[in-house]
Give the backbone structure.
Amino acid sequence: MKNRQFKLFQCCVPVKGIKNGVVIDFQRNTMHKVSNQIIDLLEEYSSKDIYDLFNDFKTSKTILKKHMRYFIENELVIMSDDVDCYSLLENDFFWPEIVDTISIEIENLNTDFKEFLEIQINELGVKSLKLILRKDEIRNFVKISTLLKKSKIRCVVLYLEYSIEIVKEFQPFVIDDPRVSQVVFYNFNGDLNLEDCDGKFCFEKSPLEIIFDNKTIESVDDFVLNLNIYNEALQRNLMFNRSVYIDSLGNVKKHREDVEMYGNIVSIDLVEIVKNKDFKLFWEITKDQIEVCKDCEFRYICPDGRIPFKTNSKDHYYKYKTRCKYDPYQGNWDI
Ligand code: SF4
């Protein structure tokens, strides 16, 4: 191997967990399992001559060569006479929108809700809506679709209690609606011929409480290998940052299970409500502050949807009520 300086490409980010580490290549959307010791060496010897590394670890030359070959073959490292001309990655994260995602429960689509959906959410720059339709589902959905016609909303996810009639009713309305990305039917108990359903339809046996607030990671396929997401996860909670929950009476909460109500959209602008410091604090709960996740090598690419709760512990501030299927201490998944 020719002597040159080396360092990881700027789009390749190393993350150490308690047992394993990974190098995430955000350009190719790939992830490479690497030991923490190798990550330490990559960081310590970054921008130095590769011969320095081999000289300092003469007894481990063979294993180091093997790793270096792997990094070069997978284009994870730059080998150059002057690696400093390759700049470092900026970890800046800025989104102009105050609120990005709104989850809203609709029973009675009265004038206040209509005004909110048609005007306020646009002014706030909201991009995603999660609609829980409790009553008059199809009528309310059609009205909401009309209200959103000129909006900036890019993605709508519908949550409906399963019945075969509702599935059949919704099929023609959502099939060609590009904004509706998913229709989730909870409390599914049928023997539906799923081939007859649109690909946007998702059937869950669990109740709404489980699928809405406790959506966990199932496998590596759930991770999001995106540099903006990574940068956001360094400073914010990926699932809850810039998101609010509005109940069927218009009360604004941090999330569906929140016992606090911070105001009502009928009487106060949402932009004023989210100025409350509780929102800011909640949005800023990174995985580094959550038990178990803080030790996981996937913590900056994990869109796990569970609600973090405060612990009494002095060392760690938050925890989840349920277990994740990945165990970072063993480095394996529940089967
Ligand atoms: S332990 Fe936490 S960060 Fe790791 S996969 Fe599970 S939820 Fe995600």
About this structure: The pocket of iron/sulfur cluster is lined by residues 217, 287, 292-293, 296, 298-299, 302, 304, 324, 326, 328 (CB under 6 Å). The two ends are 42 Å apart (CA to CA).
